[in-house]
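## Example pair
The file below holds two records. Each record gives the amino-acid sequence first, followed by its structure token line.
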Amino acid sequence: MKNIFNFFEVKKFRSHAVSLVALMLITLVLAVCDNTDHPARGDDNGTEGLWLYRHGEEYIVKGFQFVEGGARHNVVIPQTHNGYPVVAIEDGAFNVNVSKGITGTVSIPASIRTIGVTAFSGSDITEVIFAPNSELAVIGNSAFASTVSLGTVEIPASVRTIGATAFSGSGITEVIFAPNSDLAAIGNNAFELTSSLGAMKIPASVRTFGVEVFSGSGITEVIFAPNSELAVIGRGAFELTSNLGAMEIPATVRTIGANAFSGSGIATVTFVNSDVPLVIGALAFANTKNMTTLTIPARVTTVANYAFTGWDPLGSIYIPFESLTEADREWQLVGAPLTQWRRENTWPIIPFPLLPVGIFRLLPPANE
């Protein structure tokens, strides 16, 4: 009988132990997977009303919980909440349609790694302040689009991607990239229609300019850092940039896309010498009324259709002899191939009676 009693006592103890362990596991899972919303209160670093979403052991900013008071002024995003880091700003978190607008400055802590799509789109912010040692890696598509009151923006060195239309239509006047920038790509239309934009210094790490990245903007000058890695200037990248004056194309550029400078105000283009093959796309320099002279480097392998159409009738294009090693080579300068060359001792003139550009000339051989 005693053995039977002991058996049931042990079984009962084991049952309670299993239940306790199960309860602990459930509690742990709920704690880890707690995806509940947590509004920040007034004593939480001045972030009253922020709506925070817990994901595991991290928090994501969703915007404001309360919007009755109208636009919020000088937003401060906390670095931590309830002991966990705040790592991202959700898509649309503060755009004008969701948060009813925010004004003034936005302070973003070092812990934020991602600013989501349309996060501040259409808001009336005037300044974005990134904390020192920022871990921000991605500025999402249209993150600051149509922020017409935005002025100067300093991009942290940690940012690797500026998304498509990130600052499109904004009032941005200056973009400053932190030293030792890791930025690799500037997305399509990222700075299009930013009419107040001035000069910009591009970090050496940038390898790609997206499609129409500065199209229709007020940009006046683009300065590439020494040892630039830029490989592609995308289609329409500087199209209709009437304030653009001069540019030096880095030695690493392999492609100048179609319409890249079409309709721009650019007057002078200089190609840095290198052995990297270069393709100039269709209409790349079409209707650049301020440009009258261009020297095409020997590394150019292809000039696509109508690349220089619409120039001033007195314009000239200088092409090194070494670029014409094949007798049947076809250069599609302004719509017609150059298939016949007249080489003379000094400056041969190649007339194009059917083309709007008056004269094309070849540079003399290097040994002359």
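Second record, same layout:
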Amino acid sequence: MVKKKDLTIEDLADLMQKGFTQSDNRHDNLVAEMRQGFANVIKDTDSKIENLAVMVQTGFEETRSDITRLDRRIDGVEKRFDNVDQRLDRIENILTAGLERRVERLEDGMRQTKTALKIK
């Protein structure tokens, strides 16, 4: 049979101290791991935010380029419409002037007919 050693208060104090030291070491290691983990997350998040900012900026630049190209096309369309408007105005003036002359000739003919028929 193995004889048990009597546990003294000093032995108990040593055991307690070793337990606290192990607990402190584990705590310190855990804190260090957590700090490193948070640092990695922050670094990764900063990188992702930077990438997102670059993508947004690129999107704005592409949109600005598209809008500029559309503005040029719209300007061209407006010029073409202005040309069409000018042509239609000329055609309208030609037709209106011709119709006015025809109406005047008809009115002159009616006056002559009224005069010949002696109608007031």
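Notes on the second record: The chain has a mean pLDDT of 90. The chain is about 90% helix and 0% strand.
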